[in-house]
Amino acid sequence: MNSNFASRLLSGKTALVTGSTSGIGLGIARSLAEQGANIVFNGFGDAQQIEKLYTEVGAEFGVQTAYHNADMSKPAEIEAMMRFAADKFGGVDILVNNAGIQHVATVEQFPPEKWDAILAINLTSAFHTTRLALPGMQQKNWGRIINLASVHGLVGSAGKSAYVAAKHGLVGLTKVTALENAHTGVTCNAICPGWVLTPLVQKQVDDRAAREGLDNDAARKALLAEKQPSGEFVTPEELGALAVFFCSPAGNQVRGVAWNMDGGWAAQ
User: Fold this and answer.
1) Which end of the chain has less Cβ packing within 10 Å, N or C?
2) pLDDT tens digits for range 122-154
3) Residue from 115, 163, 195, 265 carrying the catalytic annotation
4) What is the rounded distance in angstroms from the CA atom of residue 257 to the CA atom of residue 147?
């Protein structure tokens, strides 16, 4: 092993990151791996591409990696994934609840099955992973639970009732988890990104470009101008650096926060 890898912040720790085969989850997984954490990946995608992805991340950062394809809307599959992590690495030290889906419609036109799916994946899955990860963290008296909420965990936007409800719920779950573990070495915090150019957001850019007859660049600028005063996207790497901070000794007393990284969105 490269001697540069010897004394990294998270050496010997294991991180499980849901929805980590692309976008924000992948950015956070890479940042944690860079600090020496073994990574359990989870998410959808082509099996061969996923294998290539986790193998390459392991080689690049000199850590062990694995993948579990749990569908985050199914409690039994989440339980199987947590058992897999325990069997493979002896448990989960860092849990990043990032899996999420989106659907846009007004409340009266919102399909109930879409509401149920968004609540299941964006909120309920985090309850299941958290309840299963906590006993091991409490036993070791060290753990980090990081919930990817959203600026929509702090403010609303029209057309996103289920997403906003789920993300506000995730911020609430974060606070309660933090309080229940306040006298331990286990912390729980939420990261609340604004616009990040993930596949999910790119789809909204594409839809807008088509709807308003704009080119992609103009559609991106229009999307940012509405909400994000900096006029720039947040990057997965920036979010990863914040996750690393939460995992560091400097984050020991950061407990139950909803930390927005949103280019000024929520400051308005």
Assistant:
1) N
2) 999 999 999 999 999 999 999 999 999 999 999
3) 163
4) 10
Q: Which stretches within 144-215 are classed as H helix? A: 161-180, 199-212
Domain membership of residue 215 as a residue range: 195-233
Q: Rounded to an integer, what is the distance from CA 174 to the centroid of its chain?
A: 13
Residues in the chain: 268
Instruction: Judge if 160 and 221 occupy the same domain.
Output: no
Residues 46 and 177 in one domain: yes
Say if CB 150 and CB 77 are below 8 A apart: no
Amino acid 1: pLDDT: 46
The whole-angstrom separation of Cα 78 and Cα 70 is 6
- In angstroms, the CA 122 to CA 174 distance is 13
CA distance 10 to 37: 5
Beta strands, E only, 24-127: 38-42, 65-68, 94-97
Mean per-residue pLDDT of the chain: 96
What digits encode the pLDDT tens for the residues 40-66?
999 999 999 999 999 999 999 999 999
Does residue 138 sit in the same domain as residue 62? Answer: yes
Is 163 noted as a catalytic residue in this protein? yes
Beta bridge partners of 68: 42
Amino acid of residue 192: C
